User: What shape does this take?
Amino acid sequence: MTPTDESPLPTGDDPPAPRGIFVTVQASVEPRAFGQPSDGGGSRETPLEQLALAHRDAREPAAPAEDLLRTEIDRLLLRTFSPEDCATLADIQRLGDEGVAVAMTGRQDGAASRFLRANRAVEDSGLGPQARALAESLLWAQEAESETRAGRFEWAAELMEAAFDRDLAAEDAGLELFLAHRIRLAHARLRLDQARGRLGEALLIGAGLLQYLERPGEPPCASLRPAWRCGWRDHRGVIDAGLAADLHRQIAEDQVALLAALETKDVREAALELRRFSPEQPSQIAHWTRFQIARLDSDEVSRKEAARAVLTGGPRPSAPLCSSVAAAVLA
Assistant: This one.
C-alpha cells in the first residue's frame, strides 16, 4: 500500500442489572481501613475483603507458548488453500514477523525495509484473489504495529482499516475465523490511540471489545469509529471459548493499565471517560467500570456493591479485571 493521510465467554451467574448501571448514589458511609473490625471484634476482614484476598493474586493458567489466534488461522489456511499457496503465505508472514521484531528494537528503517520486501513478495506471489487478500490483511496488521511504534499513526490507521476490509471479505467468503482477527485489529487500534495519548478513546474501545467477548450479542459498534462498525455479529460457534478468553485477557490487561495512566493524568477526566461506556447486559467489564466510577467518586456504597459483583464472578472470562478490583479493595 502507499501511505495517504488518514480520513477523519463465559459469563458468571450475576443477576440481571437494571438499566442505568453506572448511576451512582452518594453515601454517607465512612470508609473503614482494611483490617479494622467493623464491630469492635471478631474477624479482622469483612466478607468483601475475604473475597478480595482470594482473588488479589489471581492468575491465568500459564500463558500459551503460541499465539492462539495465529495457530487457528494457520490451520484454517491449511484446510483452505493449496500447499503451494500456504507455503507462500507462510513466507510472507515470516517477513512480517521479522519486520515487527526489528521494529521492537527501535530500528525503524530496518523494519520499513523488511515490510517493503514483504509487500513486494505479495505483489509477485501469483496468489489467487482470496489468498492474496488474506496475505495482505495479515501483513498489513503486522506493518501497522511497526508504524505505530514509529509514531506514524495516520499510516498505521490506514493499514488497519485496509486489513479490516480484507477480513470482512474473507468472512463473507466463508472464512469466519477472520472475525477474531478483526477483534485483534480493533485491539491494535486501542494501542494506537494509547500511543497518541487519546486514553479515553482507547478505554472506550477496550470496554466495548471486552463486553463483546463476554456478551456475543452486543457488538462493539458504539466504541468504534464509523469505518469499523460493519460486520459485527454473534461470535458463538466462530470463536472458541479458549481463544475468546485469551483475547479477553490481553485486552483486559491493557484496560487496567489505561485507566491507571488516565487517572494519573486527571482523576475527573477518568471518571467522565468511564461513564461513556453503556452496556446493555451485566458483565465483568460492566461491573469493573461501575466499581472504578464509584471509587473515583468516593461513593462507598456503590463501590462495595460493584466490587462484590466483580469478585463473586471471579476471574471469568479472565483474571486482570478481577485482580485489579481485589487490589483496590485491599489497598
User: Anything to note?
Assistant: Residues 241-265 form the longest helix (25 residues).
